Amino acid sequence: MVVETSPAAELFLIGRVLLGGVLAYLGVSNMLDAENKIEYARSTGIPFAGLAVPVSFVLLILGGLGILLGVYPMIASVGVIAFFAGVTPAMHAFWRIDDPDERSQEKTQFLVNFALLGSALIVLVIGSATWPYAP
Description:
InterPro entries: DoxX. This protein is 76% helix and 0% strand. α1 (8-32) runs antiparallel to α3 and α2 (34-43) packs across α3. By secondary structure, the chain is mainly alpha-helical. The chain is built from five helices and no strands.
């Protein structure tokens, strides 16, 4: 794979640290605000929010750490994909919001999540290759 050569290997490592680190951070940040996240999920009609929201934290934290460390990257990326595929349309349904400011905020969050979903799909595609600087 092309990323096994320098400087591609170093750039790939930086990308892993950035993507995986941000995902893990978001998962921990959400977990620390679990009560509010669960209430928000309930307000959007998410079934079993008390269970679904904590599971989403685990997907994001473990997925982020797996990408960051290069440990089981395909499994890690599938967890992240599951998180964003489920959370994005359910929690950021901007098309249902009438208030222009709130709609704009949710649309931005929806698009950011879509970009992160795309990143996780890329990781899935290259996940079976040997990753430089990974155990």
